[in-house]
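Q: Give me a backbone?
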Amino acid sequence: MGVSSWQSIRNVALSSPLTLWDTLEYATLKSPQADVRDVNQSPDASLLNNGTKYVSRSDGLCCSDIKRSDSTALSRTTVSSTVANDSKGGRRQWTNSGPPTNGVSDSECSTMAASDATTDDSLYPIAVLIDELRNEDVQLRLNSIKKLSTIALALGIERTRSELIPFLTDTIYDEDEVLLALAEQLGALTPLVGGPEFVHCLLPPLESLATVEETVVRDKAVESLRLISEQHSPSDLETYFVPLLRRLASGDWFTSRTSACGLFSVAYSKVSHNVKGELRATFRMLCQDDTPMVRRAAASKLGEFARVVEVEWLKADLIPMFVLLAQDEQDSVRLLAVEACVSMAELLQQEDVEQLVMPTLRQCAEDKSWRVRYMVADKFTELQKAVGPEISKQDLVSAFQALLKDPEAEVRAAAAHKVRDFCQALDPAFRESLIMNQILPCVKELVSDANQHVKSALAAVIMGLSPILGKDNTIEHLLPLFLTQLKDECPEVRLNIISNLDCVNSVIGIQQLSQSLLPAIVELAEDSKWRVRLAIIEYMPLLAGQLGVEFFDEKLNTLCMAWLVDHVYAIREAATNNLKKLVEKFGVEWAQSTVIPKVLAMARDQNYLHRMTCLFCINVLSEACGPDVTGKVLLPTVISMANDNVANVRFNVAKSLQKLTPRMEAQATHSAIKPVLDKLITDTDVDVKYFASEAMAVLSG
């Protein structure tokens, strides 16, 4: 709908004493002629014509029968439509009745109608949307709420503020999905209520939404409140927003108090000195609330609040709150205090961190709850960066050792995942000695940990220690650990090692790598257990990319071709797909010189299974090599195999021709493939004839 149409709607709505519903009904229903149609409850606007009468299956009242009280037209309106009589699956009846006069003469109504002919068509969908705000069908209400901006645009700024917003505030009790959509829509309505000067009128419905029981609705309401708070002037913030914050913070139900915790940081920086003191006191009250959910919400927002509070008040007011929350009886509160610790440490001087933060942090690292220790391990590198290198050397190294040896596997895994980043951030002057003497002994124990998640987390980062420790230490201390993990029974551990070989390759060189790790890879590739061989095949494209084409041709190419004749079909199939990935990585020229000749030679193999594998390889290689190589190099081999003695090979020739047909030029396809298929269609084997006819259908189509 164009801007001019919306302007016309507003002109009609605002230039007369008609109520909202009078104007909407008049604009949408007035017409000199009428016919009758049966339509769904929410008629599509594209189906609407002037004068069309939409009739329900049962007798019902038309939309013009509206009972109004003395309150605002929209918020107190009861629509006596068919939907009101038959809410479940009912249908509306729209009639071409004349407009309610409401003190306006017919001539004045006619003048308004003639002022813009497009108004009639434009306003009907808006009437439907407004009506559906009160509908008993949840989906209809949800659809209407999602188009709230459209309704507001049609009503205009004045009526949006005076009628639509009060209506939404009064009808805040609804299904959670409707309330969630409403909370989201309200955050974007600022331009439609008159801009920042009137943004405060959006606060009442959002305040109500911030107190509901459903968490996602409250969170979305708080998000919208935070958004519109930025559009308040400092005076409006103190006049409208801060009182809202007070009401939420002192609410009887914990839901309002939890929502209040998320609003302090956005209001604090804009208000006066006295109000700032009040906000800090209110936040302190929430940190000491009797309800654990409120203390948890306060702990989660403490770090955010600390970033906007002045340093002197941070030390005087917020640090005591942090210490209090870190000693809370609920571990769910204590673990959230760890996150706040990061923000506070970043804002304080080194000596203040040591005095005010570190005692509590040491306590958290040794907390009786594994969930708190897990949070410390998960945030450890952030804490390390916040407290600085000196405190890291004195306190965090020993704490990190304890976390790597923690009795809970989840804590060890979280700490193991941080090994590389923690070591990298240590002071370069002491880094190597600290790692070799204190961290590496713990790492060696984790390599043989009983929990596979711990080993997998370590394998993902342990290769990153090579650039930190250098060539000699890598060869002497790290390579044995890599070899151990490369032979681990857990496939994820092996994959993580192979995925990061480039870190080691850049330090010790390809020659040393081939002498140490490659024999272990080859050994796994020839393992008697086919599932072990299968795992190595899946890693091969990744390994090839790490080592480069020359090294791959020298050391691993023969291995890949040997898999094509493995006695287990799953291995042959995986090896076939592996070839395609290698060609995509190394290019078509490499395939023509290295892979394709060996594949085509399999067409003459004595074992029919190997000849079928040749066809399977051609199928996947044709995708990677393109139509030119497929037509000139691969197709002749497929055609030559059409005379094979084994029927299984012949019908796989037909299937291959069916797959190659779309990948080649049409002229070459017909001249080369059609005679072969004509012959195979007359084959004595029923399966060969079937697949040949299938291929011919593709060729003809």
